[in-house]
## 1
Amino acid sequence: AQSVAQPEDQVNVAEGNPLTVKCTYSVSGNPYLFWYVQYPNRGLQFLLKYITGDNLVKGSYGFEAEFNKSQTSFHLKKPSALVSDSALYFCAVRDGNFNKFYFGSGTKLNVKP
Amino acid sequence: NAGVTQTPKFQVLKTGQSMTLQCAQDMNHNSMYWYRQDPGMGLRLIYYSASEGTTDKGEVPNGYNVSRLNKREFSLRLESAAPSQTSVYFCASSFPQGIGNQPQHFGDGTRLSIL
């Protein structure tokens, strides 16, 4: 079965510093991986997706994700955090056979000025 | 540019009452989904519809029913609401896997409280 894990409930960084939000996955077959962001009282918004063969994927709002097959990880990164990046971030994997998506438990990112 | 529209945005029910949450998408997506979001538990899949005319149970289907009315609309019904169903409900849609690695698109949710 497909699954993703986000080991950190919360990540705190100072504005201007680099940020990393961690995600590990377990899949059978090709990994169809995604990152989403959720702002208060809003639905999830798509940030980026894994593209086969690319170890570094670029997405919206300056975010990128580093794919590591040997460590089965897909960590979200940004070189310089903004206060406005404070939100809840979800990693997800798609089960291609059944058109279902599996989500991690979410990581709350706090960026302090 | 509506995307996925959910109604209502907020609802308070009494235990035992019934209600239907509505969802519509205008992106010509084949697949639609209903999730609930509870603190610390991420998103849990209630039901999904891979294509018009089909529905399947997800992780937490008990107490819910769904109807895929047409390609655009996918409703979620609570027949006899229970306090444990207090949650935020999200509808999402996507293209099927055969059309590349496409993400889901989400509505802004229905916040449901059951007293």
## 2
Amino acid sequence: QQQVKQSPQSLIVQKGGISIINCAYENTAFDYFPWYQQFPGKGPALLIAIRPDVSEKKEGRFTISFNKSAKQFSLHIMDSQPGDSATYFCAAKESGGGADGLTFGKGTHLIIQP
Amino acid sequence: DGGITQSPKYLFRKEGQNVTLSCEQNLNHDAMYWYRQDPGQGLRLIYYSQIVNDFQKGDIAEGYSVSREKKESFPLTVTSAQKNPTAFYLCASRTGLAAETQYFGPGTRLLVL
């Protein structure tokens, strides 16, 4: 059972364009939603994260939009650059401070064309 | 430098062999994790540990074993029972139960000869 569904699987965007990656979840106990960025052969690194009490969070060119009623959240990369080419994972964690790991989406392979 | 180190970067396993992947952290984090990454599959949790001498199975623990004898170390053994071990293995840690952010190591790629 896939608890976090991520789309698209791959995405090609022109330099300067907006990259949009979407995730949907079913578990209403999730209350922390991070996005990770992973370059080939490296471990994922936290990019930005949001809690359900806000609908949007922006850090530089990266924005998370969160729709609690639809149980969806998305990552927007503004003015996309070739250096943004990487695999992006959305994830979610339940409330209550449980020590078990994050639940990840399957990832989106993003290519920014120069 | 503070962080998580994994070794080796590449590991080759022969048929029927057990191999151990190392994970060390100097972040003083309580919780540590092992994930397996396959192309198009995302990250799947193998084992996790909240404190020394305690660990719990994740979603895909069969064919793997772990130990947590020291706070800073969480080695993963891929046993001969794991029939499809070829994957990228990621170790992660976080401060404790109240913390959400997981920090990942650089990974170990395991290949079968």
